[in-house]
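Action item from last week, closing it out:
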Amino acid sequence: MVVVLDNQDILSRVCGTNDDNLKTLEAELGGKVFARGNEMRIEHSDEEAGARFKAVINGLVDAARFGESPSSEYVKALIGAVETAAPGCSPAARDPIRDAVIHIPNGFSRVYPRNKNQARYIQGMRACDVSFCIGPAGTGKTYLAVAEALRLVLSKKTRKLALTRPVVEAGESLGFLPGDIMQKINPYLRPLYDAMESLVPFEVIRRLEETRAIEIAPLAYMRGRSLNDSVIILDEAQNTTKEQMKMFLTRLGQGSRSIITGDTTQIDLPKRVDSGLIHAVSLLKDVEGIHFSYLHTADVVRNPLIKKIIQAYDNENQI
């Protein structure tokens, strides 16, 4: 399959720095990709791979014509869109990846949705004041929520970012951890810091903390507060009780929005205690102004092996 480009400047942008995009195409599609003059081609025995290659290159060319320099992450996003598109349908027509790009001021790089469900999740966060995302580990629930929240705060579209999690033990006891209560709680909140540190330099996070533009705290610390002009993320929401979920949802003040993420297959609550996330989804599914996104095993982006692990556990539960 050969694709002829308009000029070498477009070709250079499509290939990426040090031909990173070509390497990504080879890794994701298989075969060997070549670029010479103003032509790109792939050597592959599968005709469908050639058709996917052409569709992805056309998407990269469109981005380059708008002055963008597509990254390898964008290549992966386009491949995901192409693989889920209807026959004869372009990635843009089927899945508006570019419309859901998250550009964080002072961030390391743009964040691209890797599939159509992630793109819908981002669009839902932007369209609604309250959005839920339910899906298994590795699907980018927390990562995308933190990325979108940082975009809003660092572009000064909102005043504050509040991140919270319920502190629920998963087989270990807080009492066996050393230190005072905040030191005991810190490991539960660490994943939120990890997400931020992968998106922006540490100095940016420290500045936000110093100016109190960012706050990370256990869910219990949210009680009795009203947060205005803020974006509030509740992570691991499957471990909230019904009462905790109601308390969190009613913290929403003027000009604020809430993002709730959780995995209903990993509930660590005591037996006979209902999950506040499952209850909220059932109770609020028809409420106008609330968006629900669902990610699945096929949407796992953390590591290809994660899909196989989740599938193995799912298969065991079905026996």
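Closing note: Residues 86-95 have pLDDT under 50 and may be disordered.
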